[in-house]
Target: Voltage-dependent potassium channel beta subunit, animal
Amino acid sequence: MQYRRLGSSGLQLSALSFGAWVTFASQVGRSVARDLIATAWDNGINFFDNAEGYANGQAESMMGDVIADLRLPRDGYCVSSKVFFGSASDPRPTQKGLSRKHVTDACHGALQRLRVDYLDLYYCHRPDPDTPIEETVWAMDALVRQGKVLYWGTSEWSATQIREAHRIARHHHLHPPTMEQPQYNLLHRERVELEYAPLYAEFGLGTTTWSPLSSGLLTGKYNDGIPEQTRLGHEGHGWLKRMVLGDAEAQRLERVRRFTATAGRLGVAPAPLAIAWCLRNPHVSSVILGASHPEQLLQNLKAVELSDGLDDAAWQQVRAAVG
Ligand SMILES: NC(=O)c1ccc[n+]([C@@H]2O[C@H](COP(=O)([O-])OP(=O)(O)OC[C@H]3O[C@@H](n4cnc5c(N)ncnc54)[C@H](OP(=O)(O)O)[C@@H]3O)[C@@H](O)[C@H]2O)c1
Model:
């Protein structure tokens, strides 16, 4: 495994990390979740990502249970939560969003579910149009000062909103956001590569990126339809299918087919190739992986070697394939 600093902070995260979205307490039960965390840990992964909204908090409970069962040393791993969507199935106004109240309640809930005394990373899962950014910055700073959160950050905030959070923090001598959690993969590049470009030097912004395989699309498993026993084939995942395939479904699948053909010509599996491509961006602190089986995780971990193992001509072919 390779370790990278979270932006300009001193926290060293594994370049590949592991998250629980739509898998833990939903697609996979406790036994597979335990195997996944054990496989990740045994291969050097030290950051486990979660959120209050994943399976209404049950993903955090399952992760906390499994980590406790595996007796991972608390000083050896990092765990995160995210606040915004709420963990209640039909959240009331104070049970969601980024108000001081919900940011504080959600932190306490995550600490309990994950069975830890502090969260290493705590993210605002989306911007909240109904809460002034200033209120959220003060709430996050209070949690840091109370020792309940070590690093706070954002997820899918605009560069303008991140800049505003920094301005407020600087003005009041508060802890600014350390990291952002954006989507980043071969099919979704603009925000990380263009919109945030000035922020890396300006604020030492770290990034922990999500969906490196676009929910599995970049493995090529959906090239000829949607197989059962896959994320997009899972009952109740119609919303996810629409999100991943988008409006221009045929065009998107064509780009993926060209990518998987290129992987074939290079003699490598598409999944680690797509993940290795994310790792090649020096502004990525950690690529958060998802997996429903330990075998997938083992295959994806090969991305670390692959990111240094191909020449520039090969990477140019990859870029050309996705357009
Ligand atoms: N901040 C945010 O808003 C946000 C949003 C989404 C995710 N995230 C975080 O990012 C993490 C990773 O995102 P993601 O789960 O979408 O990652 P992803 O790598 O794009 O998709 C993971 C899924 O792809 C399939 N897969 C993975 N490796 C495979 C392989 N080698 N061969 C075949 N299929 C494979 C599996 O699904 P199946 O086997 O079920 O098909 C797996 O669950 C999440 O767990 C979460 O922690 C954050």
